[in-house]
Amino acid sequence: xxxxxxxxxxxxxxxxxxxxxxxxxxxxxxxxxxxxxxxxxxxxxxxxxxxxxxxxxxxxxxxxxxxxxxxxxxxxxxxxxxxxxxxxxxxxxxxxxxxxxxxxxxxxxxxxxxxxxxxxxxxxxxxxxxxxxxxxxxxxxxxxxxxxxxxxxxxxxxxxxxxxxxxxxxxxxxxxxxxxxxxxxxxxxxxxxxxxxxxxxxxxxxxxxxxxxxxxxxxxxxxxxxxxxxxxxxxxxxxxxxxxxxxxxxxxxxxxxxxxxxxxxxxxxxxxxxxxxxxxxxxxxxxxxxxxxxxxxxxxxxxxxx
Length: 306
What we know:
The chain is an alpha/beta fold. It has helices at residues 24-36, 52-56, 78-96, 109-112, 118-131, 147-175, 178-185, 195-215, 230-244, 262-274, 293-302; strands spanning 12-17, 41-45, 65-68, 71-75, 139-143, 220-226, 250-258, 279-284, 304-305.
């Protein structure tokens, strides 16, 4: 078997997840080099502790950079993602409340950018924007932050859905359109004149699309990375259980720095039991630092897919 077995069939999103320090960035680089030999590929790191450029052997920044014939890469600037997300949100509010001329939202920008959880919303917005380019970049590979952040990132549409549903119910009562909203929730097409309600319903539709994005196991592949140590494995199990509650599964598990010894074989058996539907990828312990495309290609030759 080859790494082709763990990629989406024709095009799609690949999220590399796992505990900090297990080798997510290294495997993101490995998979992106491999994928780019097949189809146009975009690899990004949304981990604030960027090392993707170091592994690939290129200086990367927020601006996209071509580093091979079929490979574009960047290290997303989280502050820039927040600015882009807030600018879009503020413009939406301004358009929805044009009649309130005294509403000066710009002065709240600095406060909003430091709000708890805003970076996770910005990351989600960025991933969704990349997915819209999937016909240009057939494979979109995302090197994610530590599991505590990634779990909240993937679960965010469900949290947003609860809030927006409550706002829709409240606005429909204010506008006297409760029966109309019940029809909308039932999937019926109706005409709504209330502009704020229209915006909320559009937000709800976008949230549902984002849920389906993560739940579509043919298009979106969640690949967990661990080592043979206990803590990263436990961390990955916790993430897997959290994702299962959303109807999302980890499609493959990478054992980084694998050694074919008694402990290594024991870990393989354990992971097969805990992740019965997932493919296992063995990335061997190398006797050199993997910090260039040339060295990555040597590692690819030694990888086993079970």
